[in-house]
Amino acid sequence: MSDSTQALLIQNGRIIDPSQKMDLQADVLIREGQIAAVGANLASPQTQRLDASGCIVAPGFIDLHAHLREPGREHAETIESGGRAAAAGGFTSVLAMPNTRPVNDNAAVTHFIIQKARQQSPVNVFPVGAISEASRGDRLAAIGEMREAGIVAISDDGMPVMNSSLMRRAMSYASGFGLTVIDHCEDLDLSAGGLMHEGYTAVRYGLAGISAASEAVMVARNILLGAETGARFHVAHLSTAASLEIVREAKRRGLPVTCEVTPHHFTLIDEDVKDYDANYKMKPPLRSRQDREALLEGLADGTVDAIATDHAPHAGSEKMQEFELAPFGIIGFETALALAFEQLVHSGRISLTRLVELFSVNPARIAGLDRGTLKVGAAADITIFNPERRWNYDVNQSQSRSRNTPFHGRSFRGGPVATIAAGKIVWQVESNPSAAHE
Ligand SMILES: [Zn+2]
Ligand SMILES: [Zn+2]
């Protein structure tokens, strides 16, 4: 690992930076944690070098949606282990959801997360504050003081706000503070008792269903409240064709709404749920084939703004239970980019430029972060990835403390090669075939 004060020269890569409409073969020079220059044949004596031949050099990836489990559930993940897993997935920044124990609903918890991340996480961690006290949905959390302490958005992810009046007040506050409101859109009355997507497969398994409308009605509600309050509303892990159509129409009208989609929702469908394996149990659930098709179209046509993982670690003992009893959620940092290559890039649906928008430029804009760019003077957060790297995902080698994934053993083409946060190489793949030929 290099010192952040030392210079680093990334050579021979293809720079793709949609924030500057840049796509060219060039070098990147980093000094004191910032981008110092981008250009051809940059020379800098006594500088650490990184060969990026055959690779894309992009603004650092930002995950808008992750659960790092600290404080309170360190057996499943910590800020350190989660940060290392994020780095191994090519992410230089993650937004940490507030459903920790205690919930991040006040400045003390926010400070704790920021301090801990500074000391122990290799990547930037931006806390998301709760909307309501303990995310219980009755009274607003201390949004102003958390804003002072450093939160970048508010959300009651996992415990969605059912009370529309409370959500309206939260949006009014958020609008005043310039914070984005991220909502896990789920009408808890409609989804009550549900374990997987409502459809033929759920009937076959004898499991209670979660309807598509249970998500879409809350997407619509929040868009209407956002229009009234002027708040920026961001849909977390959007999963259905119906929700996407509502977002598409709202955008057409110029309303302040954005949305993210997870790799598991654009890769798997309800029919993939196997043998009551809880590694296929998440919220929102894996949806129908038509829903996935709609998400893929939305990712291609620009309706979807970002890819976010919803990295949700659960310890083996929790997840290795009957499907009905196991908690919802899967880990996702280390497979996100490879799944995007599989479903979106190699399938010809999107360009590499669009891929970088989805992983970096747009997430930065949504969270109001001064990142997602390789402009000179910007923080040197950089993701280097290789579209042709072939590798197998072995979850037992994961940097995460948890193992809950449906993608163990999957073969991939394309993946991260090196992750640079604040000018430091925080992760590097053990063997990068195309660079090794140099
Ligand atoms: Zn959620
Ligand atoms: Zn979540």
Word description of this protein:
This protein has 438 residues and is of the alpha/beta class. It folds into 2 domains: 8-57 and 378-401 and 413-433, Urease, subunit C, domain 1 (Roll); 60-367, Metal-dependent hydrolases (TIM Barrel, Alpha-Beta Barrel). 31% of the residues lie in helices and 23% in strands. Strands 1, 2, 3, 4, 5, 16, 17 and 18 form an 8-stranded mixed β-sheet that branches. An 8-stranded parallel β-sheet has the order 6-7-8-9-10-13-14-15. The chain has a two-stranded parallel ribbon with strand order 11-12. Helix 2 (107-120) packs parallel to helix 3 (143-149), helix 4 packs across helix 7 and helix 7 (213-229) runs parallel beside helix 8 (241-252). 56% of the residues are buried. The structure holds zinc ion (ZN) (2 copies). One zinc ion (ZN) is lined by residues 157-158, 184, 236-237, 283. One zinc ion binds at residues 157-158, 184, 236-237, 283.
What are the main properties of this structure?
single chain; 438 residues; alpha/beta; Urease, subunit C, domain 1; TIM Barrel; 2 domains; eight-stranded mixed sheet; eight-stranded parallel sheet; globular; binds zinc ion
Question: Secondary-structure blueprint of this entry?
Answer:
Blueprint: E1 8-17, E2 22-31, E3 34-39, E4 48-51, E5 56-59, E6 61-66, H1 79-88, E7 91-96, H2 107-120, E8 124-129, H3 143-149, E9 153-154, H4 164-177, E10 180-183, H5 188-191, E11 196-197, H6 200-205, E12 209-210, H7 213-229, E13 233-235, H8 241-252, E14 257-261, H9 263-267, H10 289-301, E15 306-307, H11 316-319, H12 336-345, H13 352-367, E16 382-392, E17 411-421, E18 424-428, H14 433-436
Parallel strand pairs: 1-4, 1-5, 6-7, 7-8, 8-9, 9-10, 10-13, 11-12, 13-14, 14-15
Antiparallel strand pairs: 1-2, 2-3, 5-16, 16-17, 17-18
Helix pairs in contact: 2-3, 4-7, 7-8
This protein binds zinc ion (2 copies).
Residues 65, 67, 97, 157-158, 310, 312 line the site of one zinc ion.
